[in-house]
Design a protein that fits this description.
By secondary structure, the chain is α+β, with helices and mostly antiparallel strands. The chain is built from 5 helices and 8 strands, in the order E-E-E-E-E-H-H-H-H-E-E-E-H.
């Protein structure tokens, strides 16, 4: 005897995915549908009852957004983007080793045999400001970080080839008030197979707008 469908229910979850629940009954054992997301079976007084749940469709993808701040090195702030290239190089060397031979060659002031932040402070206007802040113990700043997640239902496993690359679809952040100059990279992807469907969440990380630049194109460009 074939199973008889006794009830069909539909609902949508928080991510707008359409769920269908089918209840069947039979006096013979019922095999679950391999495409079902989940099923429950019981036998009472010689009658089998099977309740199966299926994911049908979602319609438009659903989005969520998180905002936070991260601590970034002071020298990465756009306020200091015009610090001279030579000063930046000397500063990086000085932090590693104040007695490096290259600093002796770089010194153009009469104070001491080596380049130091103090000798160059009056020569580079932007670095002078940087050094005042750094000397006061301000070595980092808080930069805004925005993460956007897109969840959708897919019939196939997700494509991972775009991980770590700049998004070019144009939709992350659409409709949000975002800092100017921010762009996004695909930073992670989570997918869970549910029956014959994949519930997939792509996560996009916004660049640091306080640096004055987005994610670097040559480094994070897609293939």
């Amino acid at each position: 005897m074939d199973a008889i469908q006794t009830k069909i229910e539909e609902s949508r979850d928080i991510q707008k995915i359409l769920l269908q629940t089918i209840t069947q009954q039979s006096i013979a054992d019922i095999e679950p549908n391999e495409n079902a997301r989940s099923y429950r079976k019981e036998q009472v007084d010689g009658v089998y009852t099977m309740v199966e749940e299926f994911l049908l469709d979602q319609g438009a993808p659903q989005y969520s957004v998180d905002g936070s701040v991260s601590s970034e090195p002071l020298e990465s702030h756009k306020l200091f983007k015009d610090v001279g290239a030579a000063t930046k190089a000397n500063w990086a060397t000085w932090k590693r080793n104040p007695s490096a031979d290259s600093l002796a060659k770089a010194n153009s002031a009469s104070v001491g045999p080596f380049w130091t932040p103090q000798t160059d402070g009056i020569l580079d206007e932007y670095f002078a400001i940087f050094w005042v802040l750094y000397s006061a113990g301000i070595e980092s700043y808080y930069a805004p970080r925005i993460t956007i997640r897109m969840t959708l239902l897919m019939g196939d496993p997700p494509n991972m080839t775009s991980l770590g690359t700049i998004d070019t679809n144009g939709w992350p952040g659409a409709g949000l008030s975002l800092p100017p100059g921010m762009n996004f990279i695909l930073s992670s992807c989570h997918a869970q197979q549910e029956g014959d469907q994949w519930r997939t969440t792509y996560e996009y990380l916004g660049s640091n707008p306080a640096s004055g630049e987005g994610w670097n194109g040559p480094i994070y460009a897609g293939g």
